[in-house]
Amino acid sequence: MRTFLIRRLLAAIPLIIVVSFITKALLVMSPGNYLDNLRLNPTISRDYLAAMERLYHLDSNNIFERYWYWLWPALQGDFGYSFTKTMPVWTLIGERVLNTLLLTGSAMAFSWTLAIPLGTLAAVYRNRWPDKLIGLLSFFGLSIPSVFFSLLMVLFAAKTGLFPPGGIHNQALWTSMTAWEKLTDTLWHLALPMIVLGTLGMAQYVRQMRSEMIETLSQDYIRTARAKGLSQVRVVCKHALGNAINPLVTLFGLSLATLLSGALLTEFVFGWPGLGTLIFDALSAKDEPLVMASVVMLVLMLVVGSLIADLLLAAIDPRIRVE
Amino acid sequence: MIALSGKPKASELVRPIGRTPRQLFWRSLRRNRTAMVGLYVLALLYASALFAGFLAPYSYENAVTERSFHPPMLTAIRLLDEQGRLSRPFVYGTTQTDPQLATYQVDKSRMYPIRYFVRGDSYHILWIVKSNIHLFGVDAPARIFLLGADKFGQDELSRILYGGQISLSIGIVGIIISTIIGLLVGGAAGYFGGAVDFISMRSVEVLLALPGIYFILILRQLFGSGLSSTQMYIIIVIILAFIGWATEARVIRGMVLSLKENDYVVAARALGFTHWRIIIRHILPNTLSFVIVTATLSVPFYILGEVALSFLGVGIQEPEASWGNMLTAAQNARILRDFPWMLIPGVFIFVAVMAWNFLGDGLRDAADPRTLS
To answer: What ipTM was assigned to the predicted interfaces of this complex?
Structure first.
């Protein structure tokens, strides 16, 4: 178990190095840098700009040199200060990561709690109307662009006033709230982005769940269970479900990248202060230390996520051992 | 398929004699109702984008500020006049009552009949045909906004039609480029093996492991800002194709690995053909049905990629219209509440993506030898 964990985490190192190198290279090769905007401001002294340029080695266009100047302190745990916010990057990223995890985690939970029963239902009523309805629903979920869906939800929120149209919590009252009110307020703000992000995942899982369930229900041991006179519910829930779910857990690990991609657009529309909008803003401002640290964080989230998927699979499938 | 076609009938199970796989493929596709609906919808959408200039009453940048956020007139077209007599379709003139709130009042004293084949803004169809005749329009000073107007008083319908030219064609252009890359890289990796295989497959893994949108945004940085819309179009296609080839290449490699063991490949090699000739002429054609299916199913990726970039403000820029940058205008709860027609471009994206998915699913079923009985 421990060797497995260590090996998996070590395998992440080349990925982080490759991704951070590509990111740095693209940032260096792209025209302009953060100081260009400051140069337009006459109140900022030339000396300060020159000092900044030297400090961050922005004068060099050598990709390897610039990468090294980032990598060497980073290996010692120093990821630098954000250009725009003049704060250590991890202070900025920390809170945003939690928000993104809250959003993606709840979206994931939403899609699973809906996909498993719906997929099972579709398989049991194969080719009859519940199946067709669920099939159409999953097609909708797969095809609806997340930008459009998010905007539809904002429209819904703005028209009915049942949900807040954006943000993560009520800014005006936040400081005066009790812990319980803070929780409910956050959940209230979470609902719509969670539904948007969760629907896309749900559509994929439903289709997978349906085909796995159909496969499982045609197995011999299911016939045996039926022959013993067990009820349909018992056969499906007790004998088939556990086996049909396994491949879905694998899919969970694979869909993490899609989930984080979708999170950016959802965060953008709902004004959810997550990692996605942070990276987007940092890229627009050419805030290099912030972009680099966020990208590393993103890759770490992916690696840890797929690790969790593997551990989960091992936990529910006794045939798989983590060695 | 998502089980929209029922059980095969007994007559379908008898294999007809003397049909080629291609005939069987088309027969199977034509019988798939959802796939055909997808095909017809796509034909309609692409035709309307092609003839956007003719179908749209105005050009995409024809703006009248005093018609800002004019509501849709699709339901305001009338056939009966004040006296209840039947007349040709007409609309009433409107006057702006409050420029701040963008409210309009119907002025029943002025009737504007809808005229057909009217002269207006000039346009090109496929850069060749130049004309200024539009399918329909109304006399000045009135304007016809079937799907409403945006902040600048530009006609949404016209902008959607013009925007479709960009948003819909990016799907096709992107998929052609990335399929070619995917075929060549996958073919080479599978055929040559060794270092070629190792390097290309590691790059594929990195590309597939990353959340696409972030990579797209970082790549987008490379090109700076202040670009013309043509440059922007090319850049979007390049960026999306740069990421999109990975999936294709990986599966093609797998297919080539088994295909290259066939006798006819050995025969081609014995005849002294070059490696690339064998790959392109003898091996890759066998992957055709798979390539068509994946290509069709990946078109939405390109359409949505353009939408995402333009929506985030780093893609196609105003005044050029694309379905993505039109949605940017709706990125505000107040505007959405008061002028919900700003969301209509999203419906078009949704329909286009859904149609491609329907068609792709149908093609996959038709190409699957297990359902080809």
So the answer is: 0.86
